[in-house]
Design brief:
The protein is an alpha+beta fold. About 30% of the residues lie in helices and about 15% in strands. The protein has helices spanning about 15-20, 60-75, 95-105, 135-145, 150, 195, 200-205, 235, 285-300, 310-315, 315-325, 330-335, 340-345, and strands spanning about 25-30, 35-40, 45-50, 80, 85-90, 120, 160-165, 180-185, 215, 220-225, 250-255, 270-280.
Amino acid sequence: MPGIGIPSLEASLPPIVKRNYGKWTSHDHIRPGVIKHDAESGEACYTVRAAMPPNARVSTPTMRMLCGLADEFSEGFFRVTQRNSIEFVGVPVGRIEELIARLAGHGFPVGGTNRSLHNMTCCTGYMHCHLAATDPAAIVKAISEMLIKEYETDCLPAGLKISGSGCINNCGEGSCADIGIVGVHRDLPPINAEKLKGCELPLVISVCPVGAIKPKGPGMVEIDPKKCIHCPACSVACAAFAPIGSANGDGVAIVVGGKSSNTGDGPALAKMVIPYLPNNPPHWPEVTEVVRKIVDTWVANAHRDERVGEWINRIGWEKFYQRTGLKMSFKVVDGYDQRSLEYVRSNVRFRW
């Protein structure tokens, strides 16, 4: 019935895409943020990509402004990419520079394609979630301001993706980015005995992924500090464990070498290189300094089209730590046991 369910894909396609659907022959990166697609018909579709906030949250006036630009430059169509960039599809070639200038005037830089820093993403953090150990949107904003040249120019060996997550649940997918910013709790969850009375103890015990919660007498549980991995799963199942975290215990971990695409060495899980950095808003100097070191060292030593994880695989972790100047820890280096190898066999490229 009309008006019920999801609109058809065809209704959301820009006219030039609809005319040439399934008949594209090639594409080329004209300049950072501008992509040209050629079709069998001889038509060329120009797409302009601009940065958006990492959590894709914009105000109503801002969204109306973007819609107005789409009406003026791309026949009323734009799309939001998987990494929260905004793309104006079907821009006339003679108006590309005008659109770029208009976007820049509103604070939206154009870039993030080919061998550049792609738009950074993160989870909602404190905005909607009570589990966050840090403010990923603010951290990623500080990093994006530091790396704005890398976003607007093709100055990197390969594409660079940086993602942020407020806690180790990794909703921001830091574990599959070249560099991941992951919020970490270090304190044990508090137990409120009164609130625990309203929770189902079997559920509370079973929800812990590592079995750190055990019964302790009638109507009470205890947490084994040696097993607890400081994930907020228990606080989701029972309010007796919330609020979780503290100002002194919460912070940021840095992971590197992740990738979700099947190119090069194939998909990979990121590896933790720094287990804890303090929360120091609003600019997070410790975090931005580490990210700058990793990016600069990768740029200076990587081969063309070699992502961060592939570069580390070639030189080895020992040289990675030596060249970046980061401190190596056995707690980090030996963080994976043999069982983890089963999970990283994610494609046909088998190796230990």
